Amino acid sequence: VTDHAAELVVMKHSTAAIVDNVTMVKKATEMKNLKTLVVAYYINGTKEALNDYNLCISIKRSNEQFVVTANNEETMAITDSLAQATNKVLLPIAYKFSPQAVVVMFDTFPVSSPTSISGLYYMIHQLRTLAEGRIIVVTGTQGEVI
Q1: Of 22, 67, 76, 108, which residue is least crowded by CB atoms under 10 Å?
Q2: Three-state secondary structure string covering the chain
Q3: Separation between Cα atoms, residue 24 and residue 130, nearest integer Å
Q4: What global pTM score does this model have?
């Protein structure tokens, strides 16, 4: 574990990192001026768009549905499962955008529901097909904004 894990991914010395320091992620991606896709998965509350990034897709669990929003502006879709949101909305937008780095962040790990956990793992696995597999997962971001 290192404070520079995000930087290692950005510099192509590593393909993946799990970090809890949002500021380090922002610095690392800005340092290389990367075209970055941020996917934010929220269970509790809402977050503002991450304006410093080229594209932010927010997925919020509301009741038993998933609401997908791009750059906090327009609702792209409302689906019944995270896998459905990933396949029908997130991936087509992500492939068209063609990012150089992917950042996945969530406020709370969904330990209460095995379906949510498997859906989150599936989403992260699918996002690894982008940006030459370079992905940074940010955990414990509740109350923080990049």
Answers
A1: 108
A2: CCCCHHHHHHCCCCCEEEECCHHHHHHHHHHCCCCEEEEEEECCCCCCCCCCCCEEEEEEEECCEEEEEECCCEEEEEECCHHHHHHHHHHHHHHHHCCCEEEEEECCCCCCCHHHHHHHHHHHHHHCCCHHHCEEEECCCCCCCC
A3: 21
A4: 0.83
Structure token pair of residue 66: 């998933």
Task: Quote the mean pLDDT of the chain.
Answer: 81
Overall size of the chain counted in residues = 146
Q: What is the maximum alpha-carbon separation in the chain?
A: 40
Q: Give just the sign of the alpha carbon dihedral 130, 25, 41, 125.
A: positive
Which residues fall within 8 angstroms of residue 102, CB to CB, at 6 or more apart? 36, 37, 38, 39, 94, 127, 128, 130, 131, 134, 135, 136
Reported as a single tens digit per residue, the pLDDT across 36-88 is 999 988 765 545 444 455 788 888 877 778 888 887 776 778 888 888 999 99
